[in-house]
Amino acid sequence: MDENRAAILNNSNRIISKLQLLSVFFGDEIIYKIYLRSQVIHQLFENNAELDINKLELFHLQFTQTLVDLLRQIKKNNEKSISLLLDEIQLNRDLINKIQAGLYTQQDFKLEQQRQALKVNNSLRKLYQVLSDDSAEYPFSKNINAFSVRFAPDFYYEVPPQLMTDLLQYNATETYKNAYATIHRKLLGQLCKYDFRTSFFCGLRAGDLAVEVYKFNETERYYLYVPARNLFLFCDMTQISHVDWTTELSRKEKFVQELTAKNDQLQNSINIVKSTIPAEIKSLLVENYNKLNDMNFLKQISDVDVQANMLKAMLNTNML
C-alpha cells in the first residue's frame, strides 16, 4: 500500500471515529446511520485498491468533516445553554441552603405551640388571681411574646387590616383591665369555668400586628391574644371562616419546595438541551443520509459536494 493511500485511509478512520463519538453524544438515530454509512464507504475504498482513493478523501473533506464541524458547533452551543441552566440550579441551591439555615419547620412550630399554650394558660390563671386580689404582681410567663415574634412571619395566616381591626374591637365596659392586661369579663369567667385549659389554634397577622387564636379544649369557643397589647378577647370564628386551615407549610418551606421543583425541571431541561439538534439541521441530515444511502457513490460524488455546501452554509448562519 503506497503512503498516500495509507494516509488517506488512516485519516478516514480518525474522522469516522469523531463522528461515532458525536453520534453517541447526541444519541440521534440519523447521525448514527450516517456514521454507519460512512464506515461502509470507507470499507468500499479500503477493500478495492483499484478505486481512486482521492475520492474518499474528497468525500470526507466535503461531507464528513463538515458534518463533524457542524455537530461540534451544535454541541458547543448546547453546552453554553446547559451552563446557564447549571448556574441557575446552583443559585437556587445556594438560596435553599441560606433559607434552610434559619428555617423553622412545621415540626418546630407544632412543638412550640404546646409550650406557648402552657405559658398563656398559666399567665391567664395568674392574671385571674392578680385581678381577684387587686394585686400589682406581673402575671405573664417569661418570654410569652417570643412565640409570635419567631413564627408569625412564616406560619401565621395573613388577613386584611380591616378584618384585624374588626376582630380587635371591644367595649371597654365589658373588660377587666389593670396595668398589665385587658381581658373580656365573660372570657375570664369561661376560662375559670374550664380550668384554663385551652390550646393554640392558629396565628393571624396584618402587617406587623400578630394575633394568637386559642380554642377551649372542652367547647367550641375561641379567644384572641394580642401580644403587642396584652389583650384577650373572645373570637368570632365566622369572621375568619374564609381562612384555609389546611395550609401547614410555612412560607419559607413552600418557597424551598418551589425552588426544589424548579431545579428538577431545570435538570430535565439539561437532559433535553444536551442532545437537541435544530429542526432545520435535523431535516437536512435526514436528506443527506437518504442521498448517501441511495446513490451510487462513485458516480454521484458531486451530489455529496452539493449536500456538503448546504452543511457549510449552516455553519455560517444564525441557524445554530
What's the N-to-C terminus distance? 42 Å
Number of helices: 10
Assembly status: single chain
| Unreliable sequence segments | none
Which sequence of SSEs, written as H and E, runs from N to C? HHHHHEHEEHEEEEHHH
Q: What is the helical fraction, as a range of percent? A: 55-70%
How confident overall, as mean pLDDT?
87
State the shape: rod-shaped
Into how many domains do the coordinates divide? 2
Strand order of the largest sheet: 1-4-5-6-7-3-2
Largest sheet: 7 strands, mixed
Whole-angstrom Rg: 38 Å
Strand content: 5-15%
Q: In terms of structural class, how would the helical and strand content be classed?
A: alpha/beta
In total, how many beta strands? 7
Description:
With 320 residues, the chain is of the alpha/beta class. Helices cover 63% and strands 11% of the residues. The protein has helices at residues 3-26, 29-47, 53-101, 106-133, 146-155, 161-167, 185-193, 251-274, 279-294, 301-315; strands at residues 157-158, 175-177, 182-184, 198-206, 209-216, 222-226, 231-234. A seven-stranded mixed beta sheet has the order 1-4-5-6-7-3-2. The longest helix has 49 residues, at 53-101. The mean pLDDT is 87.
List keywords for this structure.
320 residues; alpha/beta; 2 domains; seven-stranded mixed sheet; 7 strands; coiled coil
